[in-house]
Amino acid sequence: MLTVKRVIGVASLLAVTLLLLFIQYVFVKENRQPLQLTNNSDEWYYDNPSTLTYPHDRFKAALFTFVKNDTASLTKLRHTIRNIEDQFNKERGYPYIIFTDQELSYEYMELASSLTKATVRFEKVDNVFYGYHPETDQDRAAQTRADMSQIMFGDSEDYRFQSRFMAGTIYRHPIMQELNFGWRFEAGTEYICPIDQDLFQYMYENNKTLSFVIALYEYTETIPTLYETVLDFASQHNEWITSNQDPDSLWKFIQDPFTKNFNGCHLWNNFQV
């Protein structure tokens, strides 16, 4: 005879199993054969649009991501654009912005953009947005990478460049400045069910500014001085930063309620609108 406790246990196990399957489905690399680029410039041409075309004039919204120029990245990008079109964008027509720090061939751009009728703008970013800040001490940066070589991505220079861009400088880019909303997607991931609601329209009609879907515990060894730096900045800019005494502030997401220390919460902007 099933008891309430046993039913709850079975339901919990099922929920965990479904969650693990979802994570595997979305995040684990699939064994797809990458496309083989011909690299023959005479066979391909792509007229990269200078402006974005939006489906209506109430607000400006676009989907955006960051890619590299290799065939594996193109394969992932094509897969995800096809998936987004099928699950969300085919009937809506929001444009795509594809950022990169490398040269993309006409072939690459044509193969990626051919999966949608929406505008696809490819944007190569320069070292103003992607790379070292002019005031960065590069000798100190190199030593820090060496000291963090045993930490995941700890010794990667390019990972830092991409993180700096996607978490900060991207929002100062001119093409992003014209948007009211931007939806970050990741090449190689899938949305496993139809998205019937227009998220951009919902946020516009309900006066929403930001949404996020992932919050994990940070690897604290990768950010030894971040929290103190944030506190110092907040203390100097009361005009921008809401006090942690304000009950409506978001400090509660990142501060331990008793010690007021950083609680390790790491808000990702992956899949964020």
Automatic annotation (TrEMBL):
<dbReference type="InterPro" id="IPR029044">
    <property type="entry name" value="Nucleotide-diphossugar_trans"/>
</dbReference>
<feature type="transmembrane region" description="Helical">
    <location>
        <begin position="7"/>
        <end position="27"/>
    </location>
</feature>
<comment type="similarity">
    <text>Belongs to the glycosyltransferase 15 family.</text>
</comment>
<dbReference type="Pfam" id="PF01793">
    <property type="entry name" value="Glyco_transf_15"/>
</dbReference>
<dbReference type="GO" id="GO:0005794">
    <property type="term" value="C:Golgi apparatus"/>
</dbReference>
<keyword id="KW-0808">Transferase</keyword>
<dbReference type="InterPro" id="IPR002685">
    <property type="entry name" value="Glyco_trans_15"/>
</dbReference>
<keyword id="KW-1133">Transmembrane helix</keyword>
<keyword id="KW-0472">Membrane</keyword>
<dbReference type="GO" id="GO:0016020">
    <property type="term" value="C:membrane"/>
</dbReference>
<dbReference type="GO" id="GO:0000026">
    <property type="term" value="F:alpha-1,2-mannosyltransferase activity"/>
</dbReference>
<dbReference type="GO" id="GO:0000032">
    <property type="term" value="P:cell wall mannoprotein biosynthetic process"/>
</dbReference>
<dbReference type="GO" id="GO:0006487">
    <property type="term" value="P:protein N-linked glycosylation"/>
</dbReference>
<protein>
    <recommendedName>
        <fullName>Alpha 1,2-mannosyltransferase 2.4.1</fullName>
    </recommendedName>
</protein>
<keyword id="KW-0812">Transmembrane</keyword>
